[in-house]
Amino acid sequence: MKSYYDDDMNYDNELSNNWMITYSDMITIILCFFIIFFTFSAQEISALYTVKHSLTDEVNKLSNENMQLEQEKKSLSEALFHITNVESDLSTSNEDFISFLRNNELLEDVSISEKEKELIIRFKDTVLFDIGSAEITENGYVILGKIGDKLKLIDNNFIVEGFTDNLPINTERFPSNWELSSARAISVVKFFINKKSIDENRISFSGWGERKPIASNSTEEGRAKNRRIEIRIIN
């Protein structure tokens, strides 16, 4: 025979076991939370590693490009004149063109300098032309011939630029310094194209007249420096 006491005991047992259901639900929820948290953390770490590897690849790529550009910059002066530092004293160089200048006492009239993106060969006007003329002299042909041979060793584009001093010129052929400087630059360009067979697509020219002086026009020495032809080889 079942008593009320037995029913009370069963009811108490049921109540005493109910907390396990809540507890197990709570543990399940916490477990799910940690699984989700771990999943997101793993994804974030993976994403960070992906970004790190991408940035590392870009840095390495830029470093390699910089090294290549630096090597190209060095190889330009080396390819033309076999010298690694054109800013140093050229009088001690045994390279053929430098030796030619030294043997003909032209080292003071021709200079070579290198900037970040170009190599500049600068001639005083009297090295290539007579005063007030745009016709290349015999000595000028010899010097430009040697430079033309150098330019054929490389594929770089280059610019021929003419400059004068600020003393005005007014002749039938050259009414202004601008026209004289332009005509001289054109004469040099034509020589390279017609006599040295250099691709005309590599060459451009400009005439600046008395603009862009490199020395003071108030003295004869300064004006002599300003009267010049420059070949700017793009690096």
What does this structure look like?
The chain is of the alpha+beta class. It folds into two domains: 1-81; 83-234, OmpA-like domain (60s Ribosomal Protein L30, Chain: A), CATH 3.30.1330. Helix content is 55%, strand content 13%. The chain contains six helices and five strands. The protein has helices spanning 4-81, 96-103, 125-128, 138-151, 177-194, 220-226, and strands spanning 110-114, 118-124, 158-163, 203-207, 228-234. The chain has a five-stranded mixed β-sheet with strand order 1-2-5-3-4. Strand 3 (158-163), helix 5 and strand 4 form a beta-alpha-beta unit. The longest helix is centred in the first third of the chain and has 78 residues, at 4-81. The radius of gyration is 40 Å and the shape is elongated. The model has no long low-confidence stretch (mean pLDDT 81).
Secondary-structure map:
Blueprint: H1 4-81, H2 96-103, E1 110-114, E2 118-124, H3 125-128, H4 138-151, E3 158-163, H5 177-194, E4 203-207, H6 220-226, E5 228-234
Parallel strand pairs: 3-4
Antiparallel strand pairs: 1-2, 2-5, 3-5
Q: What does the radius of gyration come to?
A: 40 Å
Spatial ordering of strands, largest sheet: 1-2-5-3-4
Secondary-structure element order, N to C = HHEEHHEHEHE
Identify the overall geometry: elongated
Structural class by sheet pairing and helices? alpha+beta
| Poorly predicted runs of 5 or more residues | none
